[in-house]
Design a protein that fits this description.
44 strands, disordered N terminus, globular, alpha/beta, 6-stranded mixed beta sheet, 21 helices
């Protein structure tokens, strides 16, 4: 496997947060300073300093994390070169150290051998440079100097990245490319200062996968009775990968786990590595919620509030997690959390506020004055225990779920507190900082999700993050001035490697990663983990994977969501796809799986484990779930029709389940010699099975008594008794019925030269066990069927086509007759062949016009195409995201114009398919407008129209996030047939348009919307 030999070394002028050119001190470097991509100063063909064989030296007086990372750098150089570096000074040496803490580095600065201007005093900033004759007896040194300990650590790991060691080398068994020569280029280099101060992850929702694997691999937790806890050896591996990703912050696991109790060394290990510790949105004052739950039994009260069953806690209280009813005990509990932080002297960011126990709202009510009292009390404890002004202590208040209501009702945390805004658990930010409010000293933060447990349904099996969507949301946060603290729920961490790395890269330097740079980022990610030879092909697979996953989470493939009036209806025993959509999306996954399989076969043996862990499993296993679901739901439809093939499809679905289990077994028992045994245990198929595991089944993973259950097929497949004779059945494209059983005539979808998608079909099927001959005839010579005669064992699909050069103009009805097994069925074919004269743009066919957002004819104002952000393609959004609200209708008002030919005048509905964004701006609401030609624009408030509420997380909101689209409509009167101008007007920024569909009366239900209409002249 060959590695890459070139990198982008210099950022463009638009990189907003890199270091300015650092002044060069004569004799200390051979080139002016450059702000670079990670590791861009490394060469494999020549340079100013050879890393092969050079010792890596660090001062023992430096921070323990710096001393430790020097050891990791030695290990990494050995991994790549096969030569183990020493640790004592030689004629050529690597020097690693922190400005102001390392005698080695400070000596170079004092001797004017090392210029650290532009680095000294900054946050987490590093310098890499080659210094000639830095000290007696040393000919040349490669110096990695940090402004602070984490700056040094990041600088050292940046070298590791540059020589080809993946941040995921341990977590995904990535073998680096072996090199005989590794050099450092001449010059002074830095990766700049991070744009976001605190950048971290929340390890969460960790049962069953991580919760099964980690205690078995690293040993049990050390708290008596809680063997499932995560110990310091586990967290050491988490801390290491975070630092390799230039992250600095952690919310530790909370599902039955207590960081401080599960291993008394956990906080010390974080301090040793240089990680900043926090606690989640529900765990204030540096104490995990399980520290309370393990030792408290809440009192039981009657309706009057009187205690009927006493409770207890370690502080002499009632055991209730209630500030109103158990305040003294709660305060003492919080006081102990802050005292522990002081006594153990670890770096922390203190969570303020209070939520209910178990990720719920506060049981004491949501009064603003109560929350103000809670925060004031907590800050009083901070001052009391630390002896410091609370303004000197990093603190956050996270506006998660119902907590945002306090802010909306006017409650403000003290100015020095970082106010962490959040997404809606599905990757759509709920609120941005208000530019009209004064800047906060503590700034703002962001809590985001790659994993979620809750309504409408858990998603925690495989990575389903769309990088373009992630980019859009992070770009918005950055544009609105959110730079204080970003933390992302990564679930088990393993399985969400790609989005986690992108999140950290973007948080470090948003100006480096524009949307157009995502393909190059994906290629670099592939190159770092698998070498150069297949990097482009792997990046293409990853890009397609993200696009396909954005259609729907795999956990939701057995849920159809519809509206009955204004009420949302869930059917957890139905596919969300209609007609041939399930075939189409499954075929897309089949093609991707085959492409991934071809790549995997080209990779060397040393890369196979990493390939399966990072790409192969998630692609193959997701594709298999689609194949399984296609067989399952086809089986149920066939059973209702009595088809002879019913039982074959049942067997195919069951085989799909067996493949699913086999994929997981390979991950658990074969990859990396069984290193990951127990990890791939997350159920993802049996959601909704109320009879099997209870009333939470519509949203919760299959589990009983909080223990995950292995998957079974749900809904269950059906088998039928097939009679021995032969019996004709006929089904047509677009209908669930079958003939001659169904009431009413069989009819094909309308045929038109502007109809797109696959040709419509007629299926001839057998309802018995004896094959029979069939024949299909048409009533007109210009209507053809491709398999007009033959023999049916199980079924035959025949496609219908029109010879448009012979078909009459206008609307015509023809008949297709199917004969077999002594019976016949007549199918009506409606053929619409409009005159092409005067038609322009997208042409109506089948009673609708469908247009993808990026195919506008003209635009006014600034718009940005967002490639791959939609379920089927690109999206388009007003630009910039900080633009003011606009009034639609004026000549200069921003808009997109689409040229369409409407053949059916009269009432029409325009459906706008939008990314499911929330009203995150202080203007209130999220609006767009639509009009035809010169008519007045009709404005739509997206959330008022659908009733979605991201705060209450109601079913209407859950419908939008589950379907990953918000579909709203406007009604119009089209006065004449012909060419029209459909206009989509900007009202608010951040609206992302994916598609527009005009229904003139023939639109049938779909999940993704109909295929884009044909264009006149195309």
């Amino acid at each position: 496997m060959s590695g890459y030999v070139s990198r982008r070394a210099v950022l463009g002028a638009g990189a907003g947060v890199g270091l300015a050119a650092l002044p060069m001190l004569s004799g200390t470097a051979s080139a002016a300073a450059r702000s670079t991509d990670p590791g861009a100063y490394i060469s494999f063909t020549g340079g100013a300093f050879s890393l092969v064989g050079a010792p890596v030296v660090v001062s023992p007086e430096d921070h323990p994390g710096v001393v430790r990372v020097a050891g990791d750098l030695r290990d990494d150089i050995e991994r790549v070169t096969g030569v183990r570096p020493g640790d004592t000074v030689a004629r050529e040496v690597v020097l690693v150290g922190t400005i102001g803490r390392s005698p080695l580095i400070d000596g170079l600065i004092a001797a004017k051998k090392l210029d650290v201007s532009g680095v000294r005093g900054r946050w987490e900033t590093s310098l890499q440079t080659v210094v000639e004759r830095p000290m007696p007896g040393v000919e040349r040194a490669f110096v990695v100097a940090g402004s602070d300990p984490r700056g040094t650590i990041f600088g050292a790991y940046d070298v590791s990245y540059g020589i080809g060691v993946s941040p995921w080398y341990w977590w995904d068994d990535v073998a680096p490319v072996r090199r005989d020569a590794v050099y450092v280029r001449a010059g002074r280099f830095s990766q700049g200062t991070p744009a976001v101060k605190y950048r971290g992850v929340f390890v969460n929702d960790e049962n069953p996968a991580l919760g099964t694997w980690a205690p078995a691999f690293f040993g049990p937790g050390k708290a008596p009775g809680f063997a499932g806890g995560f110990n310091a050896d586990f967290y050491g591996r988490v801390f290491e990968v975070l630092l390799r990703l230039k992250a600095n912050y952690l919310w530790p696991a909370v599902w039955g786990r207590a960081f401080a109790e599960d291993d008394p060394e956990n906080h010390a290990r974080a301090k040793e590595y240089g990680i900043v510790m926090g606690t989640s949105h529900e765990a204030p004052m540096m104490r995990g919620i399980e520290e309370w739950n393990r030792h408290a039994v809440p009192a039981v009260r009657d309706s009057s509030g009187a205690i009927v069953t006493p409770g207890h806690d370690p502080y002499g209280g009632t055991g209730e997690w209630s500030f109103r009813r158990n305040a003294d005990a709660i305060k003492a509990y919080w006081r102990d959390g802050i005292r522990r932080m002081v006594d153990q002297d670890f770096e922390g960011v203190v969570t303020l506020g209070m939520r209910g126990n178990g990720d719920t709202s506060l049981p004491d009510g949501d009064g603003v004055e109560l929350m103000r009292e809670i925060i004031d009390t907590q800050r009083g404890i901070l001052k009391e225990v630390t002896g410091r002004d609370p303004a000197e202590i990093p603190q956050v208040w996270t506006l998660y779920k119902e907590v945002q209501r306090y802010w909306d009702r006017g409650l403000r945390a003290p100015d020095d507190v970082t106010v962490v805004l959040t997404d809606d658990n599905w990757g759509n930010i709920r609120k941005h900082p208000d530019p009209a409010e004064p800047p906060r000293a503590g700034g703002h933060g962001l809590y985001y999700h790659f994993d979620y447990v809750g309504v409408g349904r858990n998603y925690k099996w495989v990575d389903t993050t769309s990088l373009p969507n992630l980019w859009d949301q992070l770009h918005q946060a950055h544009a609105y001035g959110n730079h204080g603290l970003w933390v992302v729920n990564v679930g088990d961490l393993k399985g969400n490697e790609l989005p986690t790395q992108f999140f950290m890269d973007y948080a470090w330097n948003p100006g480096r990663w524009d949307l157009k740079d995502i393909p190059s980022w994906e290629q670099q990610y592939a190159r770092q983990n698998f070498g150069a030879a297949q990097a482009k092909a792997i990046a293409d697979v990853l890009a397609t994977y993200g696009q396909l996953q954005s259609r729907r989470k795999p956990e939701l493939l057995n849920r159809r969501i519809t509206l009955a009036g204004s009420e949302v209806v869930y059917d957890d025993q139905a596919t969300p796809f209609y007609g041939r959509e399930l075939e189409r999306v499954t075929d897309d996954w089949r093609r991707l799986a085959k492409a991934a399989e071809r790549i995997g076969k080209r990779l060397p043996a040393a890369a196979q484990d990493a390939w399966y862990e990072l790409v192969g499993y998630e692609v193959q296993a997701t594709a298999n779930v689609y194949v399984l679901r296609e067989a399952e739901f086809t089986n149920l439809r066939y059973a209702a029709q009595g088809r002879a093939a019913t039982n074959d499809l049942a067997a195919a679905a069951e085989a799909g389940l067996e493949r699913d289990l086999a994929f997981a077994d390979r991950f658990n028992s074969q990859v990396a010699g069984g290193k990951w045994r127990g990890f791939q245990t997350q159920p993802h198929i049996d959601y909704g099975d109320v009879e099997r595991y209870g009333p939470n089944a519509p949203w919760q993973q299959p589990e009983r008594n909080n223990v995950a259950l292995p998957d079974v097929l749900f809904p269950a497949v059906k088998r039928i008794d097939v009679p021995s004779g032969a019996e004709l059945g006929v089904a047509v494209d677009g209908s669930e019925g079958w003939w001659p059983h169904a009431q009413g005539a069989a009819a094909l979808p309308v045929l038109s030269p502007y109809r797109t998608g696959p040709a419509p079909y007629i299926e001839v099927f057998n309802r018995g066990g004896t094959p029979f001959d069939y024949r299909i005839t048409t009533s007109v010579p210009w209507l053809a069927v491709d398999r007009a005669r033959g023999r049916v064992d199980r079924e035959v699909r025949a496609t219908v086509s029109v010879d448009w050069s012979r078909a009459p103009s206008g609307r015509t009805e023809a008949e297709v007759t199917v004969t077999g097994a002594g019976r016949s069925v007549t199918v009506t074919a409606v053929v619409d062949n409009p005159s092409a004269r005067g038609l322009r743009g997208f042409v109506e066919a089948g009673g609708h016009v469908a247009v993808d957002a990026e195919h506008y004819a003209s635009s006014v104002g600034e718009w940005r195409r967002l490639d791959r952000i939609g379920r089927t393609g690109a999206g388009v959004t007003p630009w910039p995201v900080t633009a003011p609200r606009r009034t639609p209708g004026a000549a200069a008002s921003p808009r997109l114009e689409y040229e369409v030919s409407v053949l059916t005048p009269g009432a029409a509905t325009v459906w706008a398919y939008l990314s499911p964004r929330n009203p995150a701006l202080p203007t209130g609401g999220l609006r767009y407008a639509v009009s035809f030609d010169d008519a007045a624009p009709q404005t739509v408030d997206i959330h008022a129209a659908t009733g979605a509420d991201d705060g209450l997380m109601n079913t209407k909101w859950a419908r939008n996030t589950s379907d990953n689209v918000n579909v709203t409509s406007t009604r119009h009167e089209i006065g004449r047939a012909g060419v029209h101008r459909l206009k989509f007007w900007m009202v608010d920024p951040t609206v992302v348009l994916q598609r527009l569909v005009i229904d003139t009366g023939g639109l049938t239900p779909t999940y993704l919307g109909p295929p884009e209409s044909g264009r006149a002249g195309h």
